């Protein structure tokens, strides 16, 4: 799981919460941690992904290949 400096924030409602069961599969854990707006009462669908270290490494490798 990625280390967080702070919890992601919804631009309209403030701090987000971890999506329950969002990272239970192997692929889900590899991608990172998903957050959603805590104000589901307002039917807010804002979400955020905090990528895992493994995903960041793979994306950096893809960037290097596309530049060279």
General shape: elongated
The topology string of helices and strands comes to: EEHEEH
Main pleated-sheet profile: 4 strands, antiparallel
Question: Overall mean pLDDT score?
Answer: 82
User: Strand content of the residues, in percent?
Assistant: 25-35%
Are there runs of 5+ residues with pLDDT below 50, and where?
A: none
Alpha plus pi helix count:
2
Q: Could you give the count of β-strands?
A: 4
Proportion of residues in helical segments: 25-40%
The structural domain count equals 1
Distance between the termini: 30 Å
Main β-sheet, spatial strand arrangement: 1-2-3-4
Please compute the radius of gyration using only Cα atoms: 14 Å
Q: Structural class, please?
A: alpha+beta
Descriptive notes:
It is a single chain. A 4-stranded antiparallel β-sheet has the order 1-2-3-4. The mean pLDDT is 82. The chain is built from 2 helices and 4 strands. The protein has one domain (9-67). With 68 residues, the chain is of the alpha+beta class. A hairpin with a 3-residue loop joins strand 1 and strand 2 (14-18). The chain has helices spanning 26-31, 53-67; strands spanning 9-10, 14-18, 32-37, 47-51.
What does the secondary structure layout of this molecule look like, with pairings?
Blueprint: E1 9-10, E2 14-18, H1 26-31, E3 32-37, E4 47-51, H2 53-67
Antiparallel strand pairs: 1-2, 2-3, 3-4
Question: What are the defining features of this structure?
Answer:
68 residues, alpha+beta, four-stranded antiparallel β-sheet, 2 helices, 31% helix, elongated
């Amino acid at each position: 799981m990625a280390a967080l400096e702070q919890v992601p924030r919804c631009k309209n409602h403030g701090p987000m919460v971890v999506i329950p069961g969002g990272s239970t599969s192997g692929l889900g854990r590899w991608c990172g941690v998903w957050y959603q707006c805590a104000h589901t009462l307002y039917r807010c669908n804002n979400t955020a992904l905090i990528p895992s270290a493994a995903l960041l490494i793979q994306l950096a490798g893809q960037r290097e290949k596309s530049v060279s």
